[in-house]
Amino acid sequence: MMWEEANAGKWAAYLASLPSKFDTPMFWNEQDLAELKGTSVVEKLGKEDAERDYREKLLPVISSRKDLFPPHLIPFHYTLERYHIHGSRILSRSFCVEPAPSDASDEPSGTTQNHDDAMDVDVPSDSQSHPAATRVHDNDGDLSVDQDDEDEEEEDIVSMVPMADMLNARYGSENAKLFYGANELRMVTTKPIKAGEQIFNTYNDLPNAELLRRYGHVDYLSLPASLTQGSPNGSAALGNPGDVVELRADLVLTAANDRIYSTAAPPAQNVSAIAAESQRRIDWWLEMGGDDVFVLEPPSESLLPEDLVSLVRLLCDDDEWRKAQDKEKPPKAKKDKVVLEVTKQALLKRQALYEGSLEDDEALMNLSSDLPLNKKHATIVRAGEKRILRAILHQLELTIEALSQKGGMSNGEGSSRGKRKGMDDDDNGGKKARR
Ligand SMILES: C[S@@+](CC[C@H](N)C(=O)[O-])C[C@H]1O[C@@H](n2cnc3c(N)ncnc32)[C@H](O)[C@@H]1O
């Protein structure tokens, strides 16, 4: 895209129509970025990686081909600033397009490419030279073409599709989709749209953290009642119904270790031995393809992701750990009281990563509707994540309470009851260590 812009070729009018200013956190100052503390935006921003790629990959290529990149154009068209701008244009406007079937070239189906215009260099087949494009590819949240589910994602090509990228999106509002035609891509309405109503494509109903990181806006809509559970005043809230909270496995590990330590008898109450054993288990988990981040959705019947429950059992239950190794399969996602309590502690640790409470954020939104845009967006992202955490914690507490009231029953669905060594204080008074 930098080369196309420098050469004012056939895409010049299209490129000139794209924005050069973005509200994405990639362009925020430190003070505004601090507002995002605790949210999943921070770790995914990738600004340093992008800038390293620019210095270590792009600049050497550019300076090695003076025939393609005349040195006098570098300060105008190939600067770090232009790199970020084009990266953001790709991140906010690209589509994943399926390549033409059995086509040896890398041309996307339905798009036309004039080879006379193409660069006289090898084009990487995965189009991932800008980390932004890599993220578009990896995170499955870019504008996608309606296609057969069986298609392998690796085969898709990150592509700019002029005109199709003019549509906005809003959670649950999609009324138009991009379809493959025989020789073109077609944006087609999928519902009747009245005059004056907006035509919305979908950005896959992403959570606000991702909308902000990729597109620079957030959704601010009515939320389901499940998200106001546990709220002090039970008031209706606004936000993005597609919001999620990401919980890193290291917080789960710490919560499990704390629990094991506090319930172990003195000889086994050895912090480093407990940490080493847990590390062994989590290494096994990762080797088996387990995730190191869990995605928590607004409370539903299942309340917790199955893989999170499975990991907690693996960490906290010796029998489950042995069985898992024998079967080469992580434990089943049974929620007993230990699982719920350890998860609750992990969620409290996750909550503590934010600055301030949900009430602080809600008050900020209510009191000052004229907050500066970045601060307003960051507050909405934070509040959305905190709201989910609060609602899940509320449900967890109710479930733990209900289990406790069942005559001191501690193991809930309890097939492992009595099998554990030392992990359940109701089993053995917390006197025995798990190992
Ligand atoms: C695919 S483009 C859509 C074209 C865009 N409307 C334009 O005029 O350039 C994505 C960009 O549109 C804007 N956008 C899309 N949906 C939005 C929404 N619901 N609210 C606010 N801005 C939105 C964001 O700036 C986003 O980066």
TrEMBL record:
The keyword S-adenosyl-L-methionine applies. Gene3D superfamilies: Rubisco LSMT, substrate-binding domain, set domain protein methyltransferase, domain 1. It comes from the Eukaryota. Residues 98-155, 403-435 are annotated as: Disordered. Keywords: Methyltransferase, S-adenosyl-L-methionine, Transferase. Residues 20-204 form the SET domain. Residues 141-155 have a biased composition (Acidic residues). SUPFAM superfamilies: RuBisCo LSMT C-terminal, substrate-binding domain, SET domain. This is SET domain-containing protein. It comes from Hohenbuehelia grisea. The lineage of its organism: Eukaryota, Fungi, Dikarya, Basidiomycota, Agaricomycotina.
